């Protein structure tokens, strides 16, 4: 049980060994309140209430801003995202690249609905977006994605399509080699593992989720490490992310570091 006392500025958490009380501004209180807020937002479909430049984005705002920070730091030439939906995320990345005067976006989806394709292809950012329709793990589709990347270009990959463990693991295997040293492959929506019993959840989400796929991939690929980007600015006392993407940020090690750790 979680109790929030705003008048006294306290958060109380009932645990098996008794009740623990935290100051409301403490990292521990923030963690517990964030858990409740994320679950409430999931149940109420909070992320389904945002657009970017007119296109539904369906992402947690915290994750959107953290992705912006990462893209500005890495400055990739190409972002590959599996999962297009309404195209809001593609438009978001493209708009950042327009401001940065470099970069383009490749979006892959097994089905791009005609009205979404039309909206993306007629958008102000359309010239920076390439759409590829088909299964993200099908060899012919993977080859099409690879053909969009020129030798020496910096690539960042975001996985946001089918979130089953098997599919994400396959995506990690086929798109991992595209990721540049110092850049990332991001296996989104690992929060599924914390949502069993919630609306729209499935009983197997405890193991059948992107976070578990990422853990298995890391165990087999020492050239990658779990390394969420550090906050580029933080004058507060809180360091934990409020995110739908726990365990998502897999960074490809730089060659020198990889050899030292081998």
Q: How would you sum up this structure, described in words?
A:
The protein is of the alpha/beta class. It folds into 2 domains: 1-44, no CATH class; 50-261, Rossmann fold. The protein has helices at residues 27-43, 61-74, 88-100, 114-121, 139-147, 165-175, 210-220, 255-261; strands spanning 2-5, 10-15, 18-23, 51-52, 55-56, 78-82, 104-109, 129-133, 155-159, 184-187, 224-226, 249-252. A hairpin with a 4-residue loop joins strand 1 (2-5) and strand 2. The termini are far apart.
CATH superfamily of the largest domain: Vaccinia Virus protein VP39
Strand portion = 15-25%
Q: What's the domain count?
A: 2
Q: Which range best describes the helical content: under 10%, 10-25%, 25-40%, 40-55%, 55-70% or over 70%?
A: 25-40%
Shape: globular
How many DSSP E strands?
A: 12
Q: Could you give the topology of this structure?
A:
Layout: E1 2-5, E2 10-15, E3 18-23, H1 27-43, E4 51-52, E5 55-56, H2 61-74, E6 78-82, H3 88-100, E7 104-109, H4 114-121, E8 129-133, H5 139-147, E9 155-159, H6 165-175, E10 184-187, H7 210-220, E11 224-226, E12 249-252, H8 255-261
Parallel strand pairs: 6-7, 6-9, 7-8, 9-10
Antiparallel strand pairs: 1-2, 2-3, 4-5, 10-12, 11-12
Helix pairs in contact: 6-7
Can you tag this structure with a few keywords?
single chain; 262 residues; alpha/beta; Rossmann fold; 2 domains; 7-stranded mixed beta sheet; 3-stranded antiparallel beta sheet; 8 helices; 12 strands; 34% helix; 20% strand; globular; disordered C terminus
